[in-house]
Request: fold
Amino acid sequence: MTKILIIIGLFFSLGIFGVMQFPSAKYTDHYPGDPGVADPVENYKNYCASCHGELMEAFVDRKWKYGTDKKSLTHAINTGYPNDGMPGFDTTFTETEVNELVDYIYDGLKNLNRFDFASQTKQETSWAGNGMNIQLETVIGGLKSPWGLAFLPNNDILFTEKAGQLYRLSKQNKLHNISGVPEVNPDGQGGLMDVILHPEYRKNKVIYLSYSKPKKENDKTVSTTAILRAVLENDQLIRQKIIFEAYPYTSTRHHYGSRMVFGDDGYLYFSVGDRGNHNQYPQDLQYDPGKIHRINEDGSVPSDNPFVNTENARPTIFSFGHRNPQGLVKHPETGEIWSHEHGPRGGDEINLVQKGKNYGWPVISYGINYNGTTFTDKTSMPGMEEPLLYWVPSIGPSGMTFVNSNKYKKWNGNILSGSLRFKYLNMSKVEGHKVTDEAILFENIGRLRDVKMGNDGYIYISVENPGTIYRLKTKEIKKASP
Ligand code: HEC
Reply:
């Protein structure tokens, strides 16, 4: 097992480069290069980077699914692959622009700007880094896409691989495959996603898995977000029960949501994304997608859920008007539920999730369509909640935690979120219900999928391609332990 201790400094940003916008701030247009006039570099940045990454080189270096000849590229850009979550751009670009973009990708540079451990130096000048020296320790490498992390009482790590495996990494750094994992549809954004423990895990050994469940065995035609409750015993999942299946199943393969957290009230909260159908689902209480739900630990419906008495409403709905929440956490002091979610192009949000409230998607938003057209000019409306923070451009937030440990005193109470798009760890400074500052950590570390506090008080992050789990150690700790 790799156990390389890499000492690095803490990365920071003095300016925030337009990453952070507060709802009260005036909305300015962050999209230079209006549709129809830009060069391919500009077009890639404005129309493709939010999903395929800032670096065209990194995009080119991907594992290709549909072919890399010019014809396939042209087809992908014009028509898209709607069921995979790839929008079509035929109404956005001129033919010349499409051809230039195809050439640009085709001739794509090969040099990846990967996170460079060796050359990064210590930076202690930002509010986030002041006086802190963080060491990034590789807990395990060689993975593909470690999606969800959970910690057993003895601090063994349970983690999911998106493709459909669940592992336990023991303290001796031995990897154990957990058997009995449900079949998933791993296409697109689907797969085996979050994993959490029951609040009384010590007594009952119960865990929860969220995943993209195919409707029929070995048939990927339609799938949905589902939650499995099971007992973990001898590295097996026994006494399994599917306690939630979002209605309806759909043929799209994105926006599953799927982050889970237990509240202090003992209820299980979890997200279901809009499944790519924002016109139908998020504002309609008859459907599960585009919502945060709340259930009892056994899957039954709490009698005090907000819509249990609303005709035709799905009774598990706790809040609605969400797009694709990939972060859901409990505030360590107040017990409040906080979340973040992906906006379209711009408009990722951090929200305080409250019972029965409407978070506005897609009626109010700070984002625009991927193809540059607008779908709303409203960022507020009576009866709709505004975010505590929004990001323009989108960072693609995944994984979320409040820092709550004496090992990082200066960070306590702040929110950490992974950025899939920019490949860094984002820190949001929190004061009460306000996010007052932001910092960028570990720039270019990789598509950052999950971030959690371990039982040992350390922060753990997981990144994709190559899949790696890191532990963030502080210098002081290293000195103290031989
Ligand atoms: C909303 C997110 C999103 C945006 C924006 C987007 N794509 Fe995609 N794209 C996807 C997804 C999802 C796929 C499906 C393949 C996959 O799962 O990676 C895809 C697939 C592709 C493919 C086929 C890749 C393959 O594996 O064969 C090409 C080429 C492509 N996109 C180019 C572009 C270009 C060029 C732009 C900008 C004009 C763009 N995309 C914008 C999400 C996006």
Q: What stands out?
A: The pocket of heme C is lined by residues 47-48, 50-52, 64-66, 73, 76-77, 81, 84-87, 89, 101, 188, 370 (CB under 6 Å). The helical segments are 40-52, 56-60, 70-79, 95-106, 201-204, 475-480.
